[in-house]
Write a structure and sequence with these properties.
Elements (H helix, E strand, L loop, with lengths): L2 H17 L8 E2 L6 E4 L5 E6 L9 E6 L7 E9 L6 E24 L4 E5 L6 E16 L5 E9 L3 E12 L9 E2 L27
Parallel strand pairs: 1-3
Antiparallel strand pairs: 2-5, 3-4, 4-10, 5-9, 6-7, 6-8, 6-9, 6-10, 7-11
C-alpha cells in the first residue's frame, strides 16, 4: 500500500470509528459473548473467537482479511456505560499478535450525549507486519459529561491479528494520557452517530465465553 493510500485509509478509519461504525455479522463465526463485529468493510474480514488466537486460557479472538481490496477495516468491539469511569482516568489494555498486518490497532472512544468527546485509535503507533504477543495500552480521561465508552481492536487493510486478555479499568491520576483526538483541540469532523447496544459494564474481557 502506498503512503498516499495509507494516509487515506488512516483518515477513513478515524472518521468511521468516530461516527459511522457499520454493524455486521458477515464472515463472523462465534464471536465472544458481549462483543460484536463492526467496521467500514466488515464483510472483507473473518472475525471469530478461536483457540488459535489465545494468549492465555482457552480462547482469544482473531481478525483475518479474507477478500476485497483491503481499503477498509474490521473491528471486534463493545460499548459500555461510562457511569463507573466518570471523573477519572481509564486504561484499556490488551495482548495483541499480528501476522503480515498492514495496520493493527486498539481503540477507545469516549462519547457524550451529542458528540465524540475524545478518542485514541493508536494512529500514532500502529502495529505493522508480523509481531509477537505484546500488551498494548491506551489511557484517557473520562469527563463527567461522558455517557459511554466504546473500545476494541481493529485490522486495517490486509493480514491478520489475534488478541486476548482485554482489560479496562480506572488508572492512577498520574498515568500518562495517550489521547489523540479531542473535541476541544483536535475534533473529528462528521455527523455524530450514538452507539447502540451499550452494556452496563465491560463483559467477557478474557474472551473465554
Amino acid at each position: 500500500m502506498s503512503s498516499t493510500s495509507t494516509a487515506a485509509t488512516t483518515i477513513k478509519v478515524a472518521a468511521t470509528l468516530a461516527f459511522a461504525l457499520t454493524l455486521s455479522n458477515a464472515r463472523c463465526q462465534a464471536l465472544p459473548e458481549g462483543w460484536r463485529a463492526s467496521g467500514a468493510t466488515p464483510k472483507e474480514y473473518k472475525m471469530t473467537r478461536t483457540a488459535q488466537a489465545r494468549y492465555k486460557g482457552e480462547f482469544g479472538a482473531s481478525i483475518v482479511h479474507e477478500s476485497g481490496s483491503g481499503q477498509g477495516f474490521g473491528t471486534i468491539m463493545q460499548a459500555v456505560n461510562a457511569a463507573s469511569f466518570r471523573g477519572q482516568r481509564v486504561a484499556l489494555r490488551a495482548w495483541i499478535r499480528t501476522n503480515d498486518a498492514e495496520s493493527a490497532q486498539m481503540w477507545l472512544r469516549i462519547d457524550g450525549s451529542s458528540q465524540v468527546i475524545s478518542m485514541d485509535n493508536m494512529d500514532d503507533r500502529p502495529i505493522k507486519g508480523t509481531m509477537p504477543w505484546k500488551e498494548y495500552e491506551i489511557v484517557m480521561s473520562v469527563p463527567e459529561s461522558a455517557t459511554h465508552l466504546a473500545f476494541g481492536v481493529f485490522l486495517s487493510g490486509k493480514g491478520s491479528l489475534a488478541f486476548d486478555e482485554v482489560r479496562i479499568g480506572v488508572a492512577p491520576a498520574s498515568a500518562r494520557l495517550t489521547t489523540i483526538y479531542d473535541h476541544t483541540n483536535k475534533p473529528l469532523e462528521g455527523p455524530f452517530t450514538p452507539m447502540k447496544n451499550v452494556l452496563e459494564a465491560p463483559s467477557n474481557m478474557s474472551l473465554e465465553k
